[in-house]
Batch of 4 targets.
Target 1
Amino acid sequence: MKKSLFLLTAVLLLITSCSKDDPEVPNEEEIITTLNYVLTPTSGGIPVSMTFQDLDGDGGNAPIITGGELAANTTYNGTLTLLNETATPVEDITEEIEEEGVEHQFFFSSSLATLSVNYNDFDMNNNPVGLTTAVQTGAPGTGDLTITLRHEPNKNAAGVISGDITNAGGETDIEVTFPISVQ
Amino acid sequence: MKLLSRSVFNKYILYFFILNLGWLQAQQCNLIITGAVLDASSQDPLGYANILIQEKSLGTASSEDGTFKLQDLCPGVYHLVISHIGCEGITIPIELKADTSFTIELNHGEHEFHTIEIEGNKQRINTVNIQSISRQFIENNPDRNLGSLLQAIGGVYQIQNGSGISKPIVHGLYGNRLSILNNEIIQSGQQWGNDHSPEIDPFAADKIKVIKGVNTLEYGGGISGAIVLVEPSAITEDDHVHAQVGYTFESNGLGHTVNARVEQNAPVFAWRLSGTFKQYGDRKAPDYLLNNTGSQEYSFALQLEKDWSSRFRLESYFSTFNTTLGVLRGSHIGNLTDLEQALVRDVPFFTEDAFSYRIDAPRQEVSHHLAKVKAIINLPKQQNINWFVAGQLNNRKEFDVRRSQRSDIPALSLQQLQLSSNLNYTKRFQKYWQLKLGVQTILTDNTNNPETGILPLIPDYRQLKNGLYIQSILTLKNHQLSAGARYDTEYHYAPTISEDVPRQIITYERNFHNGTTILNYTNRRFKNQLIGISTGFAMRNPAINELYSFGLHQGVSGLEEGNVNLKTEKSIKSSAEYSWTPSSIFEFSGLIFYQYFKDYIYLNPADEFRLTIRGAFPVFTYEQSNANLLGFDLSSKLILFKSLSTEVKYSFLRGNDLSQNIPLVYMPPNSLNATLALTSKKTRKVFERVLMDKAQIALKHHYVFKQNNLLENQDFAPVPEAYYLMSMNLSAQFIFPKVKLTAFVRGENLLNSNYRDYLNRLRYFSDDQGLSIVAGANLKF
């Protein structure tokens, strides 16, 4: 027992060096830095691209948000892409969501009453996911469009499969709002 | 202070006066034991104390003058069990060869009267500065964790994250402001987190104390005036192997708890081994199941003691504590929108009807290991030196619900190693003056495991603390004056990861100096009254998390940002206490305190929402302002008809931010407790050779007031309403010739009330636990 006492003292004296190795920066592979929403008019023409980019993750600098200008009374095909731009090469998170479609769903809501978004893709259980959508614009106006990604939503709850987030539950992985104008 | 108190002789001050009847007629069964039972502090005789010979199921009660007599005994080895209402019972091994007489001093009702012993000169001084929870209480509540047990003490509340996760708050202080000492060692871990329970198994302890005043100085943890002490007692003086095994079942959560403890004062060394195993499934609120709130725990402790001579003693302690704690699935939220949705729901998201023992994410996996070796040297002229070194290893992993099977990768993974050394010297001058001084060194190394794939909330760091203290206790008749001072230095080195990309390492190196002084005065001039006043000044430098934390903190549902510009927090605390025990059937005690803080460090919800891809989050930054805490605790006890006792306790606390003229957040609401207990004062024979002792039925009322001292915009959700809980406890001890059996049945939240507690984070999501029946038995050999 005396021996262990001396041993402990020795250890105590040895580690009194107070500098410490630099920490290893964790590989933030789960982080989503960028969301692109590209709307291509079904009748052809120049696609509209909306982007939310926050390269330093939670906190830090404010994200860069680019909204879009849409044409009135037009149908668009919407495609969502999610990226992790902190990784080299840039990582495409969209595939992850696609693979886990059952556990994810995007929700779209707009302050413009005449703008509607319908799901174009479905998971294994034939429930919507929302990576691809059909967007129909109505009368001109300005407002915003909010895209929400819920992880582990209850897709069987009332209204959820038709895109109503109210009863969805789960936790929010993405919630971004774009300024939009319909002309 | 520990040294001599670890001796059973000192604890119960037992005087043997073997009547010199020698060996004559040894085989005849006509031997007699006579004696007297005294109250240790007042030296008054204790009537109606029970004295039992365990092996023979034979017992008697002491008469009004404290004396007793047991006769017609055969020579042999016996265990004498002595107990009294409001006392912890004691067991004394005795080898009966001849007629024997002795005096027993019972530490009468330590937890009611808050007795403190000054060791060595066998002098006891009552003070409310030390309040404790007895072994008996721990044994009768093996299902509870430390925070929950401590609530039995006035002025102590708990901050919770569901049923299994809680930490104590003493007079409004917790986390970085309240140190918990396990076996004299400052518990090292991630104390900053409100959702981090202390990693301690109360069953391995014999006493849990809350200490205030001068006595906190030697531990170095009493930064702002109070500490929690968890300590085992000395190992039995008995050279037979003693064991106890307990099993407890709890209906809510279908929980099982198994405890065991074996000890022996073997000729080579004294040893004690104790262990606890717990398993709980989903707990239940009155109206729904709380999914994923199960927990598991296993822990062991080994204690060794050896007296090499009357001058030198070695003690060592090893423990390991391992737990997995589930957190309500419905409390795991993404952002503020989710929280707002959760707030308006009656039933939490993800609630299912199927009960399960499974613990998924979110959950915490924590392990804590402690090793300590202590050497005690008694020197001539009432001098004593003790030195102890300890090592602690704390591992904490927290798992969140994550994408792509990452739920099995911890979102927080921390490892902390702490080494400490304490050297204490005590000198007693005559009977009236005790001087104590010591030095302390603590080295802490904290490392984040990068496996998380998430930027750490708390940086890696290395920290060196050195402390020096001196305290003096002067006792003159009924007056006691204690004074002490302490000086601490802290150096830390923290390489942090930058908030900006590309990520860089920014290293901070800081030095701090802290001073603490405390002065106490106690007067026992009138035999049944005690008056005490205490005042102290303390400094606390900002902690690592307050300086450098950065990131999303689930515990506060926001982005938490440290503040490197924080200054040292200073506080002055004054308290006055009074207790009055006019007779053995009535007592009253009260304590009032006021604490003023300059540069009080707190987490401020900034008027700012930071936009992230997950939506908006409130930003919490560490700020400083001047603050005060004012509180009082009252307690009163009345014993009617010698067996019916009533006890009422009330605690009041108010915290104010003086700079901004607003209330302080997270302050315990006021509470009122009333207990009505009927205790059988006689030992009864229930069967041939089976005696029933300490039979008790107790009804408890617990009322928590609404926390009205809070502005509406200081919280996400309205403050919960006041609530009332009723609980009942039935317990009894059965004494068999070789075995003692303690059995109890307890009902918690008997009315199955729906309630939410202000300091339980889960109140945002769900009701608190509903009705629960706990039943347990404990066998002692």
Note: Chain B touches chain A through 67 residues (CB under 8 Å).
Target 2
Amino acid sequence: MLDKYFDLLYDFIKNRKWPIFFILLLLIATSLAGLPLLKFSSDIEAMLPGDPEISRSMNFLKNSNITNKVIISLALTSPEKDKEALLHAADQLAGSLKPPLFTRVTVGLTDSGMTNDMEFLFRNIPQIFSERDLASIDAQITPEKVSAKMRGNYLQLLKPEGIFMNSMLRSDPLGFNLLMLNKLKVLSGSFGYNISMEKGHFISADGRHAMIIAQTSVPVTDSRGAGELFRNLEEQLRKLPDYISSDVVSGHAHSLSNERVMKKDVNLTTVIAAVVFVLLFLFVFRDAGATLIFLIPLFSIFQAVYLCYFFFGRLSYAVVGLSTVLAGISVDYGIQVYIAARNSKDTLHDIKRIAVPVLIGALTTGVVFFSFLFSGIEGYRQLGWLSIFGLAFSLVYCIFILPHFTAKRNTDILFGERLENYNWSNKYIVMLWAMVTAVLLFFAFNVRFDGNIYKIDGTESGILQAEKRFQEVWGRHKTAMLVAGGESFEKVLEENDAIYKEAAAALGAEKFAGFSMLWPAEKTRKENAARWKLFWEQGREEKLKKLIEAEGVEYGFSRQAFAPFFDNLYKTPEDNDIAGSGFISGLQERFLQKTRDGYQIVSFFPDEKESVEAVKRIITRHPGAFLVSESALSQKISGAVYADIAKMAVITAVLVALFTFLYFRNVREVIISFVPVVTGIVWLFGIMSLSGISFNLSTLITGITLMSICVDYGIFMVYRCRHNLKTGIVMGIALSALTTIIGTGVLIFAKHPALFYVGLTMTIGVGSGYLSSLLVVPYFYRITMPSTKEKERT
Amino acid sequence: MTIRPTERRFFAVSLLFCCLILSLYYIPFSEAQENKTDGVTDVSVLLRRLGRQVSDFKSLKTDFVQEKDLAIFQNKIILKGRIYLQKPGRIAWHVDKPVKYSVLITDTMIRQWDEDTDQVQEISLSKNPVFKVAIGQLTTWFNGDYISLLDDYTVRIRRQNPFVLEFFPKETNAAKKFIKTVTITFREDEKYLKQIKIQEPSGDSTTLSFEGTVLNAPLEERFFKVNRHVR
């Protein structure tokens, strides 16, 4: 029955080929014209796993005001120019960075603002100081320590700066402000930079660099927005004087660079591959009509893009870019059909014959992309649907349209007869293959696995060098973040206080920068204030007074020398509003975030394994809190992606084997048809191991596709052996392999590492798979299967 | 018409009297005018002139006496020592009595030693805003860049010959918390300062008097070392 419908459809198209052709041409022209109107997403999140932890971290990084910053380092390059010129340039640039792209630009902090902030904190010491701080103070109320303090105060007052220390020392004889400064030092250290302040500007230790921090409304994952942002910034940077150079550090630069590099690579490789393909087809087939073989997959992809857009909405740029791999795969069907139709005397019969292995091949490839539909990554699911639609269109066009436009030729295809008739496969070749495969198998077990996703980061070297220079000037410590959220500001502060207490105990207060050390929740502040009052009322006030009197007399201190301290010991400041004008507002901005649902407080600690593990244990007791760590996120993403790929690989392997079996219904033939798959994988891993190249995320994904391509070669060769066909299958496989290797092999010259590894994997895998299909499969078939004649008899 | 002698005399006396009255009126008026024009423009001109004169040196060495009249102490404290100044940005402050200590001040840090601990301590100004404000002020007064003080201070001429200027910190000046006024007395030859008196809001005061000041004297490098006491 299928035969009957096949014949009907074939004849229908044959009798109306030109109207159908023009309709298709119109469809294709409309698709091309409409492509610029389609909107694609440049958000890289589509290519990340949909794991809740990863999504939460990515959402936080996208929306937080920590990562949406562009940091500019200006350097004074002329020795004749002084710091004033540098500061002037910083002010000039800062003034030119305006909304809506740049929402806030900071060049530094004012001295008066900082002094006000310090005073606010000192006034509120009773509310801020914790039990631990009081223990530290208690240890100082001894004759020896007080004596040392009095001596220190005396000397301080005699020194030049003593003019300005008088009132402070009277209010703070024991130096509580130092304890406060230490807390601020820890908090400021969470910024990770070594910054000095000069005339209200951030200045480097060498005094030759100024820093500008510009906040932007563009999320880090929006590469289109990042493009606009950087165009604007570069325009302003060009207006700076010649004696000022600049380095820019920003997450946006990375996403932009990756997209730029990938687009350049894809454009270049597409052009090279297209030219080579056309020349190849013209040179080998010596028929201009052969260009249809190349055009069909391209047009199929366009139509698949439209279909997906209609059903699913925006597609990711990255997905559309990856779909070009599909073009390389589906061109194989056109090659096989073209060869069969070109020299055929009975086109319908020959096309029906070749349609079966072509269909099986398409199904095995389709199975790979079907497995993508089970992926946890949205981008892979999109790629799965796009590829399935593309393959279906390609298949239909190749089988039902292409034969009608293939001119009959009496001339041979170049090398076609030689390839078809020569017996390439004998026992010596097979022995050689077995030895090489065994050796490479041995090395394949030693291939290194690199789970670091930064291995396939395509950031341009210029950006990485700028970051290196920036770190050399300003220093940078990698920090991880602990985020606590809540509906109300006070609830979040309370949660944060509890977390801070545990984290400070586990990591050490100097390593964990939490806002609670500066301003805890109101409940905690009241507890602190009550504890402070009790602390002094329990006799310590009297004890300290006596000690100061006794030890201070030696230095000439008056009886009322430190009266301001004791007079204010139990005073509650009226001003309780922490909103500062200097660096406290900067600290607040770093530690506090307002979200749609409430508030988030961020704490910082070193992004080291031990610290991350300790914080993970703390988080288990605080369900609303989560960790954001570059190293942990990278590991999580790698783990999720590899788990995803493993799942897809298993589904692919099972379904490919099933389809192959359903077609051949013979276990031996199925095993033989898998020889190119095994060869491709073993040789790939073996050669990588010998070359010291580690396999990674990119290799794994490509490896799944490699499986389906190599099994197609095995299926075609087994099919040819089974039916003893001389219809150009060998030539077809050769051309398929060649076009795939050309199409992906050019990626070895790509600058983006992800594309490079795709090129490497496909070149080695497809090349070795093809060779084994030509040199090994026929021999195995001959020695393991009954002769064809015997099979026909049975 | 003829004017009789008595009438002439009366007229002359009246005229003289009127002139006297007028002159008395005009003198204060002209003084006031002068003072009025001595307002902002004149003060800045004066400061510029004085600043130019006072800062017209590359190096300086001087003895000093510092009197500290602070409520924190029972009695007035008197310090004696020496100051060495090398432009563009080094000031060494050595105290001999009542304690021995030395301080080296630069743009970015201070390094200090005292006999008591016999240790050298280095403090970064960028990380200590109070120190930064304090040292910044001192450096400006010593260096003579008085015109720059107009941004942060209101200035009043208290006396002339020699000039005595009073500086009042403006509201935006971070030093306002520590300083009520700074009174600078210039030498009669206006080549340098004679005295700086700093009055704090609490009433405490510190007076720094310079003696035996030598401008552009060759300074040895050891004067700027603080790892041991320098004589």
Note: The first helix of chain A runs from residue 2 to 15.
Target 3
Amino acid sequence: MKSQKRKDAFAKLTGKCRFLDDYTVPDMLQGYIIYTTIDRGWIRKINFPAGFDLQEFTIVSASDIPGKNIVPEPVNDQPFMTSEVVDNFGQVILGIAHPNREILKKFISLTRIEYERRNAVTDTKECLDNEANQFGEIMHLKHELAPTYNLRHLWKWQQIFYTQHQEQAYLEPQGMLAEYNIEKEEMKITGTMQCPFFVKDAVESIMGKAVKNVVIETSEGIGGAFGGKEDFPNLLAGVTALLAWKAQKPVKIVLDRKDDLLITTNRHPSRVDIIAIMHDQNGFISKIDIDYRLDAGAFQTLSPVVLHRGILHATGGYNIAEVKIKGSLHRSNTPPNGAFRGFGAPQAIFAMESFIDNVAHRLSISPLRLRQLNLLKTGDQLPTSQIVTENHLQDCLDRVVQLSGYKKKFTDFQEYNKTNTVKKGIGLALGLHGGGYTGNGEKVLQSRVKIVLEKNGMVNIYVANVEMGQGAHTTLAQMVNSIFKLPPEKVNVVIPNTSQTPNSGPTVASRTIYVVGNLLQKLAERIKSELGFADLKDHIAKNQNSFPQSFEEVFVPDPADDFDDITNQGVAYHDFSWAACVVEITYDPDLYQIRVDKCWNVLDVGKVINEGIALGQVYGGVVQALGWALTENIYKKGYPRLSGFTDYTLPASLDIPEIKVEFIHTNSPVAKGLGEIPMDYPAPAVRNAFLQATGIMINELPLTPERIFAAQGRSKK
Amino acid sequence: MIELKFTVNSEEVAITVAENLRLLDILRDELHLTGTKEGCAVGECGACTVILNGEAVCSCMVLACQVQDAVIETIENCDTDPVLQILQQAFLECGAVQCGFCTPGMLLSAKALLLRNPAPTEAEIKKALEGNLCRCTGYIQITEAVKQAARELAESK
């Protein structure tokens, strides 16, 4: 079956699609920011350079803020701008605007900030190993079924896993355009963002009563986001709005790549301490105790939500009778970490999947056998007591083992490695990802969507969810049109604008198709039955006077989905997507270098609406995960800061292995979450393949030659 | 200031600009050809790739004086250029477009490859695109698209 072509592709292929930097409006000023360049301390003095006419510049600082100097987030603790106390590198001190970009950049580069420094925590392990750095609320998840082990035959094993920061590295840097209409007292923001209504809250917060109305619209093109444009745009939009209000002229800020890398949110570094108890070393895990920690950076912002998803995915795809999970945030002096595809789950799954292989290695059981022993099956309970109702993880595992020839290769490689210097390895990993907001999130959000049937026969869809490359606007239109059955070009998603789009929630959490898409489809079905048409085009043509007609629908979760936020018991996610992966690698011990040769992915994401788009999500997610596994590293202690894509090394075309993807159980009536799950499992699969190839257990990412060199030294001693 | 004469997308341009402008600035700010994107400004990401005298280059790394008498091709040439059009169609059919920010540069790197090597192997395609970063697609569908375009070009000749 051929997939429907993307609606946005033509504009993007001709260069006509406008990204934020392609917007210019009359009288527009160029804006930029000056940010803190120490990790912790105090700002003592700001020295502007001589030889510039300060009258030409608009400059804003925290003292210009008419509203609140707090970015609205799940935890309201981060200021938009700081004037004295420095809690992290990259805090905005000033917003500056000037008609000429070159003069602006020169002025900024010559401005000197004097600081008084204090001791700072910037190293991930220094942050996460020390309980004194813990801040925010500690989360607990406990689940105890009857003990399955005999106390006399216990085998207990503990391992600690670490993962590093990861930069989203969307190709289009962060950017905002603010236009202030003095007569209407209206602030209009156009920007590259995932969550227009979050940005609206932020601009209303910083502007307070100084503006009457705030309107947010996304740029036509959003050049990638991956979570990176979930919360940082709130801050940038706030500062840009403040500049436009003070200058009484439009202001556009587009970050330079280096600044974008240095100061915007990243994936949270993690430390996951796992203690498991097994009965008689037979590989059956009876009890597990997980201490899951995230380095939040200097402020909590949305980190509690990441932490929550992390603990809810911490036991992975395994059925364990006794589970005790503790989740905590730790404070460092790096910029606040934020959303990134997977949202706490990749860190949890890396630890659990690596742990499983370590146990298998230690007990000389095959990693496949160990997984089969402990795998979640229909009727089993998740740690939240939620009952698993489908056996699809087992099906994913069986299929990926078959497709990849895992069993034969596992033994073949063991033989091969006995006589060859260059090693071969094969690794397994499982993934699961809950669709939509965690726990009661969707209940609170109450997403609303709107469909307008126009007089001219067009169908316009109004949702707040953005097209950031993932193909959402094509897929959503397809879902609506599966009911209306019009030519595809007649059904379109309108660019989100908070003055006309209902709030269907943020573009996050694998929820756009799963929550918003299924809601739209429900609305389309309702429209069809209310209007009673057989052919919509015909119906509109014959009843011109009744159109345009607008319809809305609100998301109501399944009333049976009860979740207790305190005990973390209940239904945290109505549906899970499942996946299994096999990775094949070659390891060159002279270069300490891993090359990924092949990667097989079998996923159950329910119904697949657009296969081409769905495949693109998996390929892209897998490659991001491979980057996280092998090369992507934000150096901290003892290293200079990043300067760009030379020292932050993203996978390029030459690094890409053969990637095979198969979707199973696609005859499901429901399209489940897809965006994040491909990020969850490939990194541990690579790491497990390296363990199979070398027998070296490395419990940290990324697997750079430097780290392998050090580990090899340790294992020889 | 420097007086420049060069050709962009078969049109002759005569323009006086500051010496420190990059080709990227000339294209975007002076000629309003905004299909060429700035992703990093230091030649690392390839989003600003254009074809300069037959070679794919990062236009952020080319200074104004270097384009004197040059022949330049940008994504805007796709309105009339058959090779770009075949590439575009292949990108569309293979699902090689996601966010679209790397797409114009990717297309021009692919075209420059096909100009000097009409029947590239998969390895040659990957090599030709190694300077164009894409964070969305994992490059799989892009590589497929260039293969398909090469096949179609061969058939159309």
Note: The first strand of chain A starts at residue 29 and ends at 35.
Target 4
Amino acid sequence: MDKLELAFNGRDYKVEQRNGAFFVRQRPQGGNYGQAQQIVLVTGSHTLQILWLETGRGRTLEQFPFAYIVAEKTWAPTSETFLIPPELKEYYSIGAWNGACMDCHVTQGQSRFVKGSQWDSQVAEFGIACEACHSEGHEHIERNRDPIRRFKIHLTTKSDPTVTNPKRLTAPDSGLDCGQCHSVWAFNNMADKIDFNRHGASFRPGASDLKQRFVVQPNTQDHSEQKDFIRRTEPDFFSNRFWGDGMIRVTGREFNGVQASPCFRGGEFSCISCHEMHLETPRSVSLKTWARNGQLKPKMDTDQACLQCHQTMTAKITEHTHHASDSPGSRCYNCHMPRTTFGLLHAMRSHQVSSPSVNESVAYGRPNACNLCHLNQTLAWTAQNLHAWYNQQTTRRLPLQCSGLLKATLDNAPLSPGEWVGSQLKKPQVVIGFTPISFTA
Amino acid sequence: MSDPYAAVRFDAWKSLQTLPGFSDFPFNYTSDDRALSETATRAIKKWFRTVRDVNSFFAPETGLDSSGRFRQDIFQRLRTERDDKPIVLAE
């Protein structure tokens, strides 16, 4: 980064290295450079890295307005690494890390708002460390100083009650361990928000609810009072996070999808059905590949992910899919977990297991799995096939081809080259602002 | 590649790079509108003149006709049905 020079939105930025630390100076274009601000923190690792600067206001951080895209080895304006209207140039600003990002990008953070844009934030550890998933380690460490105790546990299959092992939890509790961060959540009330702000999360891995918070599912009956409040005070809250039918559409909130899946009701389905947080040895893939491919368990990028439970489907996949056995149309994921969530600059698989229907496209603009591949076909064609193959009824008129902004963001969809250049797309006229949130993060 | 949303332009580029002949195709997705259009035009010309194999068969799902020519009608239909309401995804 030393001697890096960047410009964006009428300002120049220059990075310099001194004594092993990096500093940024900025100026309005044509003006003079101001005081150096030290880069003190990075969030993100293997996909996108966002840098944070000291502000001189206690522990309040300011975002460096450029993000580093790891795979491309390039810098881009941070606002252009999110799916937001082009008019929005500054996405996160002073204090945003303290007020929002640190809720999940550290272990046991306490944001501690002071006044104005000043914060006195504290953390147990930066990043997602052991205690984030395994709960507090003090007692575990103290009691296991005794080698006899360790040996007794080693010789039995019993778990050690002084620490949480998500593998030994029920599937819903194990999922919530991940979902404490990987969900859209909100506070139960203002008192809980203040408590969270001052003392951090009271949830500990192994618990069955988030204590001061709850997972927000738009269409469930729980927390109706809180959800009504959110709708009144932040009208865009749900549309910025969910499709119209309540399916999560933002990356990083996968537990919402898992929890809303029919598989979840069976009590066996959780995040670690397919993912692992520690790469098993001997390694079948490199650490880098594993990390960049969703930290999947072996074979969980194949039909085996579903067949581990749905074993009876093994012998009748093509009978079920009506596609050739070696085609993408016969892969469970492609129909039941299509790429309808977005974040970190790419479309990701929905984590809400569902079956494709045209209704979701007509009513909510959500691309259905069929037309994500069959771009050339109409919804009527899709409806006809879904009816013929699965007796699926279509309850809405079908004048539309599958559409939606997300279609253009599909990682693996082949681009259609042609004569049209694409500059005719009408730019949005409405500028969306951010409303201060009360009960939400 | 000239979409008003930067994230869409980025993914259009990454998608393009998955096609044979385009793996090292350069594109600055944060450029100004003119540069974006010029690059998109260059990509199309490259496809049509250099990469496209006239003897190949192109599946209809690609939005191309059987000889690899762009199906304007399909694209226009998709485009007219696009929901242009401004969107923010709160990552």
Note: Chain B touches chain A through 52 residues (CB under 8 Å).
